Amino acid sequence: MWDSNALDLDGDSDYVSYSLYPEYRYNSQGTISAWIKLGVTNAYQTIYTLGDNGSTNNYLVFQSSTDTGKLSVNVNISGTSNRIDTLQTLNVGEWYYVAVTSNGVNDTNLYINGVTVPITIFSGVEGKWFDDISGTAEFPCIGALCRSSIASYHNGLIDEVKIWDRVLNATEILADYNNFLNAKFVDNNIIDAGASADWNQIKINSNEYFSFGKEMESNVDGTATFGELQESNVLFDENLVDLWHLNNNLDDSKNSYNGTWSISGIESYVDGLFNSNVADLDGSTDYITMGDIPEIDSTQYLSVSMWVKGDAFSDYDGLFQKYLSGTERFTLQLGSGVNNDNPYVTINGSAVYSNQTNFFVVDQWKHLVVVYDGTQSINSNKIRFYEDGVLVTNVGSISTIPVTLNDLSGGQTVIGNDIHSTGRFFDGKIEEVAIWNKALSEDEVNNLYESQAGKFYGLNLVGLWHLNGNANDSSGNGNNGNFVDNNYSTGLWDTFAGQFDGVNDVITTNLVPSLSGKNTISVWFKTSVPSTNQIIVGSQQSTGSTYRAYIGINNGKLAGGVGTTSWSTIIGTTPIQADTWYHGVIEWSGTPSLVKLYLNGVGEYLGTKPSPVSDLNFYVGANNYGGTASTFFNGKIEEVSIWDNVLTSDEVLDLYRKGVSKLDLNIYSCSDESCNTKTSSQLITDVNNNSWMNLTISDSNYLGWEAIFGKATGFEDYNAGSFFVNAYVKDVNISYSS
Asked: What percent of the chain stands above pLDDT 70?
């Protein structure tokens, strides 16, 4: 289960034994649970046993009995059997969660799939447990009845065997069952209010653009989790000194150090990141001054973050600086020569510089963070560079960086210039400049990048069609579609999907394949006729050589077309089942194109094809064959998204996993710092990203929460192993009053 291994036992001689004298042999009460899949039901099959290897008459065995696979527990004490059976039987070839509890006095319960089931007393009495066994050398086994002789071998699979030293109640048993089905990965996160608090609201930011079990978020019709840094964001607010968004103004959103333009012409703002404007610097006279910022003076810690997009790079162009005179300065600028596409930091004449290949690329946004920590012993640790959230390890240095920045009071702080010298103006766009008087950690830098950039929406999404009752493009690029039949029906995630009849239904768009030679197409689809060749999204020239770029179904398998060869040559391996939702991705880059095809996050094809040069619009639900719709799709289409870039295999897999998963939160108030004693709890299901949710739990000093990844609407029958989506929940905001 869960994409992992399990014990596969042959029913003849296979079992696992453990060391003698386990500590829990003295326990007078407890719980045992496991996941099992029976190969047969006509024999005693042991799940777990604790037996006496000096006798055949002392043991506790948790098993399925010969009576058509009924679940059973038997505590044999000096030859006296105390056996409790279920009335319910287990089937061959099915996974079951099974559990037994005993209070050690007079009560035994058996559970199947998280629910207590009726029992019958086959012999003896209820309530017996480990400490009732008297033996000289007790030892545990999985998969066989272990005592002085071995018997009752298990035929089938066993996974996740657990033993507790207490009786789990029915709610806990059900939670344990559900947690394994739902794949819970984030657990026992505790907030200390310092005093009794009235817990008001909670908000989760997954730092991704695709909420769990929901459509991709966008800046048009969704709640964007990416964007500008908020000065009230608790994750990044600590020691934040200044924040300039540079959105049509130079205001300091955190402090009072508003900037002024130092230019020969007019102030220049252009379209930038995050659906906002950005300062555009001309590389000859433009820069921004913010005056004397004292927090930069005489400090051992400083972090500077900014987004940079260069139109051209020249030696030592300035990015950010506080300058007093001579060598009295802190300067973040470009390097020189072959390194003028890398960041370079000068402090009082000493320098550390990045040697990264293509740190900055012309006409491409990059996130830069520089961290100064004067307490470190070597230059490469005193100045750390981060490119798009990743630490740069290839660095060089000149002289020794001081342990403390000089007192630069009376100096000037600038963006886009090195005023220490002449002609060092930056040519390009700068956005989201932030300063902290602390050394940001590697995790904080990575979270900062992800919270702003987004892994999936990214900076290259050129089309996004949710198909929720319309064919509007939600990427913000204006590529709205025209649905010829305008037919919609129930889709994934409690939303709508485009319904296509396979005859003449098609959505036409004005988006063409990328001239850069890079594209990714992602789509969710379901068809009732997988044996029919059909195209989901496509563009193809019919004149001359038939250049093409599309994704569809061929011979009952996912297929795609890139270049001039027949589209059936790019074909997957997994048969498409009728009336089942799938996630399909095709992407290509380079000349000739490296083509990748994915089905449900797993690679189905990798190879090279002649590069696509089709200049025709993409159609959804059919191929655009020279301006005429053809090879129509029969079924439902959801969440069509196209990038002017290629996604990594991990990003494709995460797109799929986030689509089939939903996020639940279990919130609880606690009376102790470890939350061993919970005073109230609240379950919030199908959590929305970046939205405040009201809390109804009782007042307490401590609040704990756990994230549970479950099955999204439309994917209830999918294997639980699909729901491993890593620890995406990184930014948790809690509102409370004390």
From this structure: 83
Domain that holds residue 281: 240-453
Burial class (CB in 10 A: 0-12, 13-18, 19+), 282: middle
Residue range 538-550: mean pLDDT, rounded:
68
Q: Which of 281, 223, 292 is nearest to 256 (CA)?
A: 292
Encoding tokens for residue 263?
Answer: 């230019």
C-alpha 619/C-alpha 511 separation (Å) is: 9
Cα pseudo-dihedral 124, 129, 135, 139, rounded to 10: 130
- Regarding whether 141 and 18 lie in a shared domain, the answer is yes
Q: For residue 51, what is the domain's CATH number?
A: 2.60.120.200
Residues 583 and 559 in one domain: yes
- 398 and 375 belong to one structural domain: yes
Residue 629 has pLDDT above 70, yes or no: yes
Same structural domain, 188 and 275: no
Burial of 604 (0-12, 13-18, 19+ CB in 10 A): buried
Mean pLDDT of the chain: 83
Query: How far apart, in whole angstroms, are the C-alpha atoms of residue 575 and residue 578?
Result: 10
319, 416 contact by CB (below 8 A): yes
Confirm whether 655 is domain-assigned.
no
- Dihedral pair phi/psi, residue 660, rounded to 5°: -90, 0
Q: Is residue 99 part of a domain?
A: yes
Query: 385: part of which helix (H) or strand (E)?
Result: strand 383-387
User: 510 and 445, same structural domain?
Assistant: no
Q: Is residue 233 part of a domain?
A: no
Kindly give, in sequence order, each residue whose CB lies less than 8 Å from that of residue 646, ignoring residues fewer than 6 positions away: 518, 519, 520, 587, 588, 589, 596
At residue 226, does pLDDT exceed 80?
A: no
- Amino acid at the residue 356: Q
DSSP structural state of residue 252: B
DSSP result, 528-545: S-TTS-EEEEEEE--SSS
Task: Choose the final residue of a domain: 646, 680, 698.
Answer: 646
Q: What is the pLDDT of residues 584-618, one digit of tens each?
A: 999 888 766 788 999 998 899 888 776 655 567 89
Q: How far is CA 181 from CA 35, 178, 403, 682, 713, in A?
A: 11, 5, 53, 20, 15
**Whether residue 419 is found in the same domain as residue 539:** no
Q: What is the CATH number for 688?
A: 2.60.120
Q: How many domains does the chain have?
A: 4
**Residue 707 within a domain:** yes
* Residues ≥6 apart with Cβ < 8 Å to 322: 293, 296, 329, 330, 408, 411, 412, 413, 414
In 3D space, the residue among 471, 459, 499, 475 whose CA is nearest the CA of residue 645 turns out to be 459
The span from the CA of 461 to the CA of 519, in Å, is: 10
Mean pLDDT of 549-556: 91
Bond preceding residue 513 cis, omega within 30 of 0: no
Q: What is the distance between the alpha carbons of residues 93 and 97, in angstroms, rounded to a whole number?
A: 13
pTM here is 0.54
Cβ pair 426, 438 in contact under 8 A: no
Residue pointed to by tokens 């619009």: 617
Angstrom distance (rounded) from CA 128 to CA 76: 9
Which of the 8 DSSP states describes residue 418?
-
| 495 and 447 in a common domain | no
3-class SS of residue 447:
helix
Q: Which of 166, 182, 198 is the last residue of a domain?
A: 182
The verdict on 332 and 359 lying in the same domain is yes
Q: Which residue has the tokens 């009201």?
A: 694
Q: Which two tokens stand for residue 687?
A: 């959590």
